[in-house]
DNA sequence: GTTATTTGACCGGG
DNA sequence: CCCGGTCAAATAAC
């Protein structure tokens, strides 16, 4: 994930996919580690997984913002960090705020939309027209304290895929400092726009549920159209997965037991 | 008691 | 006028 300075935008795509895959696997591995009995090695493993996640996320962000990855968002994926001034000046009524097309949007398809190292607070949920599941709106928990403008929306896609996939849209960058303080190493090499993920201050802790981890755990895409499905009954379920924060365990069984063995094997070597 | 989530209303853009 | 993003009162959870 470095030395890509000279890569062509198209060449980066493959890199993005690889990194995305690695990130996803690491997310799952992290979930496995969380289920292990507490212990110094378990903790170490979690710390390592955390750092790897952060690095892959950072690398992906860099690639994306360079305009190669998931630049979709209607066409303004450049970099800016600008947004509507959100005329909050007004008052008297609610539901104000103007949303504009000129937001910086990063779309990501992931199976673990709630794990990205940041803490989010849900502030709304909306049934979207031709979508099977409602869209949930989150803003950074540090919005009040630090004025962090970061936001994201999460929407489950398709039907009941085994590991359900979610379209996560990030808008605005985090300005909150909390995480950086704890994991200063993360941002090391990110270029102009890395910043999407500094550390996760509490990832290793027990609050995993409140963190929505890892935007990039799956695939960075430029999908712009949601499915055409038009049911609506199961909508409520869509955002209920909040409850089980991490990810469906079955996916672990399927593809990552081997990886886990490998990982644990390495630790054995250390013992 | 405080804090987070849910939910329907409100609003602006298209 | 419809749709999606946001607010904030009500409710739930801690």
Annotation keywords:
single chain, 271 residues, alpha+beta, 6 helices, 32% helix, disordered N terminus, disordered C terminus, DNA-binding
Report the strand count.
6
The biggest beta sheet reads: 6 strands, antiparallel
Q: Which word captures the global form?
A: globular
State the helix count: 6
- Sequence of strands across the biggest β-sheet: 1-5-4-3-2-6
Radius of gyration: 18 Å
Kindly estimate the percentage of residues that lie in beta strands according to DSSP: 5-15%
Structural class: alpha+beta
Mean pLDDT: 56
Low-confidence sequence ranges: 1-10, 67-93, 179-271
Number of domains: 1
Topology summary:
Blueprint: H1 9-35, H2 40-65, E1 105-110, E2 115-126, E3 135-140, H3 143-146, E4 151-156, E5 166-171, H4 178-182, E6 211-213, H5 235-238, H6 249-270
Antiparallel strand pairs: 1-5, 2-3, 2-6, 3-4, 4-5
Helix pairs in contact: 1-2, 1-6
The structure holds a DNA duplex (14 and 14 nucleotides).
Subcellular location: Nucleus
Pfam families: WRKY (PF03106)
GO molecular function: DNA-binding transcription factor activity; sequence-specific DNA binding
């Amino acid at each position: 994930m470095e030395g890509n300075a000279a890569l062509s935008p198209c060449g980066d795509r493959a890199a993005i996919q690889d990194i995305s895959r690695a990130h996803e696997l690491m997310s799952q591995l992290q979930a496995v580690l969380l289920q292990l009995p507490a212990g110094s090695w378990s903790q170490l493993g979690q710390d390592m997984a955390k750092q790897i996640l952060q690095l892959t996320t950072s690398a992906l962000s860099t690639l994306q913002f360079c305009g190669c990855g998931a630049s979709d968002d209607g066409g303004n994926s450049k970099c800016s960090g600008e947004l509507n001034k959100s005329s909050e000046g007004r008052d008297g009524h609610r539901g104000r705020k103007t949303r504009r097309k000129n937001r910086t949007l990063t779309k990501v398809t992931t199976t673990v939309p709630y794990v990205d190292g940041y803490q989010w607070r849900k502030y709304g949920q909306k049934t979207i027209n031709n979508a099977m599941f409602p869209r949930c709106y989150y803003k950074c928990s540090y919005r009040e304290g630090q004025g962090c403008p970061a936001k994201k929306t999460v929407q489950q896609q398709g039907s009941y895929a085994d590991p359900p996939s979610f379209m996560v849209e990030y808008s605005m960058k985090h300005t909150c400092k909390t995480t950086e303080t704890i994991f200063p190493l993360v941002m090391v090499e990110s270029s102009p726009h890395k910043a999407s993920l500094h550390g996760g201050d509490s990832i290793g802790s027990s609050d995993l549920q409140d963190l929505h981890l890892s935007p990039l755990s799956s695939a960075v895409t430029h999908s712009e159209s949601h499915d055409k499905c038009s049911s609506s009954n199961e909508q409520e379920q869509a955002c209920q997965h909040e409850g089980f924060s991490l990810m469906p365990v079955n996916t672990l069984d399927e593809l990552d037991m081997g990886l886990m063995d490998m990982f644990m094997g390495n630790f054995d070597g250390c013992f």
